[in-house]
Amino acid sequence: MPTHALYAQVPYYLSAQDWPQASIAMLNTFAEVADLRFDTSRLDCLVTDAIAAVGAMFDESPSLHDVVTRLEQRYDELRKLEDEPLPTGDELEEELQQYLRKHDGD
User: Fold this and answer.
1) 35 in the Ramachandran plot: left (φ > 0), alpha (ψ -120 to 50) or beta?
2) What does the pLDDT profile of the chain (106 residues) look like in tens digits?
3) Sign (positive or negative) of CA dihedral 89, 92, 98, 100
4) How far apart are alpha carbons 68 and 94 in whole angstroms?
5) Do 13 and 60 form a contact (C-beta atoms < 8 A)?
6) DSSP state letters, 20-88
7) Contacts of 67 (CB under 8 A, 6+ apart)
8) Residue 87 CB contacts under 8 Å (≥ 6 apart), including other chains
9) Rounded to the nearest 10 degrees, what angle do helices 47-60 and 20-34 cross at?
10) Three-class SS state of 105
């Protein structure tokens, strides 16, 4: 019997917040996998309030805002790396040989 695992990535700093975007994402993914349709309109109406609540949380804690900003920047940097193609075996071998030639006398 085929199985699927679904999860929604919600940042740790939102663990105490309602985050309807996660529920919407889960329902949409499940609907796609199971070829079903779900009405998410009631959840959609909660998104604006959830975003406002997070904004208020950041306003109350500038240090949290700074931490989240750094985390988002790091995440964006890692995503850029994922988009770069990996070197081929031949390219890795050539780079290793160049390194060994350069450091052969050391």
Assistant:
1) left
2) 888 888 888 888 888 889 999 999 999 999 999 999 999 999 999 999 999 999 999 999 999 999 999 999 998 998 888 888 888 899 989 999 998 988 876 5
3) negative
4) 40
5) no
6) HHHHHHHHHHHHHHHT-----HHHHTTHHHHHHHHHHHHHH-HHHHHHHHHHHHHHHHHHHHHHSPPPP
7) 13
8) 95
9) 140
10) coil
What is the residue whose two structure tokens read 């050391």? Answer: 106
Side chain identity at 75, as an amino acid letter?
A: Y
The tokens for 29 are: 């993914």
36, two tokens: 């079903």
Structure tokens at 4: 């699927």
Structure tokens at 32: 């796609």
Tell me the two tokens of residue 20.
């309807």
Tell me which amino acid residue 60 is: E
